[in-house]
Amino acid sequence: MTKSVKEQIHAQISGALAGAKFPIKTPADLIAAFPNGAATTCQVGDLKMTAGEAGKLLKASDFPFKSAKAVADVIVDRAGL
User: Exposure string (b/e) for 30-64, b if CB count within 10 Å is 16 or more?
Assistant: First the structure.
């Protein structure tokens, strides 16, 4: 069965942050944790989102993040995927 766009983006965000050290306490630390910083891109079909764009969906109150899954959960939820 094919994964939904939401599941695929979630998996890409989680994968991109697999090597990150948690907790991540600030937006700048989160962007730095992505392999290519703000230019790190997740893409499914025609939908493309960079870490920099995804970071704009986050609020100061979202931090600290304790896991890659937590980051991905918030981003896909706020992006309305």
Answer: bbebbeeeeebbbebeeeebbbeebbeebeeeeee
Per-residue model confidence as pLDDT tens digits over 28-77: 999 999 999 999 999 999 989 999 999 999 999 999 999 999 999 999 99
0.85 exceeded by the pTM? yes
Instruction: Please give the DSSP secondary-structure letter assigned to residue 5.
Output: H
What backbone phi and psi angles, to 5 degrees, belong to 56?
Answer: -70, -15
DSSP assignment of 6-75: HHHHHHHHHHHTTT--S-B-SHHHHHHHSTTGGG-EEEETTEEEEHHHHHTT--GGGPSB--HHHHHHHH
